[in-house]
């Protein structure tokens, strides 16, 4: 999946170069914007839990939010403790 993502980025970069278009944002700013989007997406489930009166725990965050932000699966033992 990571190689496909990099490949897609390289392909878009080549197309941009061929048609003489600059990237819409410097790479670091674009990546920070994407990170902000991922973090922002997790604010909704957190708010829903708070409104429902359910507790927020580190274990819940590690199993429900962190994998969506990092793209990595939560360790199997963390899922059992949720």
Question: How do the helices and strands line up, and which of them pair or pack?
Answer:
Layout: H1 2-18, H2 27-52, H3 58-70, H4 76-80
Q: Number of helix segments?
A: 4
Level of helix content?
Answer: over 70%
Number of E-state strands: 0
Radius of gyration: 18 Å
What percent strand?
under 5%
Q: What's the shape?
A: elongated
- Determine the N-to-C terminus distance: 27 Å
Q: Could you report the average pLDDT, rounded to the nearest whole number?
A: 82
pLDDT under 50 segments (min length 5)? none
- Total individual domains: 1
Q: Biggest sheet: strands, sense, closure?
A: none
User: What structural class do you assign from the helix and strand content?
Assistant: mainly alpha
Order of helices and strands: HHHH
Transmembrane segments: 27-47
Keywords: Membrane, Transmembrane, Transmembrane helix
Organism: Massilia aquatica
Protein name: DUF1427 family protein
Describe the protein's architecture and organization.
With 82 residues, this protein is mainly alpha-helical. The chain has one domain. The protein has helices at 2-18, 27-52, 58-70, 76-80. The longest helix is centred in the middle third of the chain and has 26 residues, at 27-52.
Short description:
It contains four helices and no strands. It has 82 residues and is mostly helical.
């Amino acid at each position: 999946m990571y190689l496909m993502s990099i490949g897609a980025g390289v392909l878009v970069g080549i197309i941009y170069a061929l048609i003489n278009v600059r990237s819409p944002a410097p790479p670091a700013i674009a990546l920070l914007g994407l990170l902000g989007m991922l973090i922002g997406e997790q604010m909704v489930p957190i708010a829903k839990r708070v409104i429902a009166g359910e507790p927020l725990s580190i274990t819940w965050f590690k199993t429900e939010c962190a994998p969506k932000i990092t793209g990595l699966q939560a360790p199997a033992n963390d899922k059992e403790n949720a």
